[in-house]
Design goal:
Blueprint lengths: L4 E6 L9 H4 L6 E2 L2 E2 H11 L5 E5 L8 H6 L2 E4 L9 H6 L7 E5 L2 E3 L12 E19 L2 E21 L1 H14 L10 H7 L7 E4 L5 E3 L3 H7 L2 H4 L4 H10 L6 E8 L5 E8 L2 E6 L4 E5 L1
Parallel strand pairs: 1-4, 1-6, 4-5, 8-10
Antiparallel strand pairs: 2-3, 6-9, 7-11, 8-9, 12-13, 13-14, 14-15
């Protein structure tokens, strides 16, 4: 079947990627010399996919330049702060047909996109040993079950393709469940798993060095070593000056939130010491 379009979801705040995500959307960070979302857009266009829709929310104004540069469409998700990514699917429901569904923060070493696809699928890589990721059980290539956490398993990672029939079925289910209690916090994948017998999807397996996702600065540094000494973060450069250290000394970054679930700050380590940085007040505390 011929691909109609690609949907790139870029509405979330990516709080785990603090503090870089306080300064710009994660999709707009540079990785190995390219902006993440721009690399993905170019790969889709190289595959002959002309209609690309980007779902925005957090710092949506920073994506505006992409309309002129690449001719993409921008659709704003007004519920990005109060709902999970099921609201991004809902925001672009009029565009869904034979569609790629993509996360804006994935880095594909090679171009995974095609102009024609046989069946709906979710991409996966193999995780050896224990994992907290979404583990897939398949039969003859068809996904039969997905569990969070496991070991020695194929895990969900990367892009997805929905056929037109899959899109219609999923949107019908989403319409029925959208305003039910508990749905707001669900990933669209959770809704899919709840109706897995109705929504047929294959697994598409990739090598472990094909698809990358960076949840924290520490993970990004393993892939792009230029971030070891230059984090591109004014917040971290300020901390460097205040503590009289180098950026490479700031490690083990982990975000924390306020009671209203908004960004509060992040913890980090410098040598044997641990610190807490409060985003709104710029207060820096050493933990005892």
């Amino acid at each position: 079947m011929k691909v109609d379009n690609a949907i790139i979801m870029a509405a979330g705040t990516s709080s785990r990627f603090a503090p870089l995500s306080y300064e710009k959307p994660k999709a707009l960070i540079e990785v190995r010399g390219e902006i993440l979302i721009e690399r993905q857009i170019k790969q889709q266009k190289e595959a002959g996919i002309d209609e690309i829709i980007i779902v925005t929310g957090y710092m949506s104004e920073k994506f505006q330049y992409l309309k002129d540069k690449y001719g993409v469409k921008l659709v704003h998700n007004p519920d990005y702060l109060i709902r999970n990514n099921n609201s991004s699917i809902n925001a672009v429901k009029e565009y869904l047909g034979n569609s790629y569904i993509c996360s804006s923060d994935n880095y594909f070493v090679e171009n995974p996109f095609e102009k024609e696809v046989d069946e709906s699928y979710y991409s996966a890589v193999y995780a050896e040993g224990p994992t907290d990721e979404w583990c897939i059980k398949d039969e003859n290539g068809w996904i039969k079950d997905v569990k969070i956490g496991g070991r020695d398993s194929w895990i969900m990672l990367g892009h997805v393709f929905w056929s037109e029939s899959f899109s219609k079925k999923f949107l019908s289910i989403l319409e029925e469940e959208y305003y039910k209690d508990g749905t707001a916090d669900k990933l669209w994948e959770s809704i899919y798993i709840g109706h897995i017998d109705e929504l047929n999807m294959k697994i598409r397996k990739y090598p472990n060095d094909f698809i990358f996702e960076f949840d924290t600065l520490d993970e990004l540094r393993l892939f792009d070593e230029s971030y070891i000494d230059d984090t591109r973060s004014e917040i971290l450069k300020g901390i460097k000056e205040r503590l009289g250290i180098e950026e490479r000394d700031i490690r083990e970054l982990k975000s924390f939130k306020d009671r209203d679930n908004s960004a509060a700050g992040f913890c980090f380590s410098v040598f044997e010491k641990k610190y807490r940085f409060f985003y709104k007040t710029e207060e820096l505390k050493e933990e005892i």
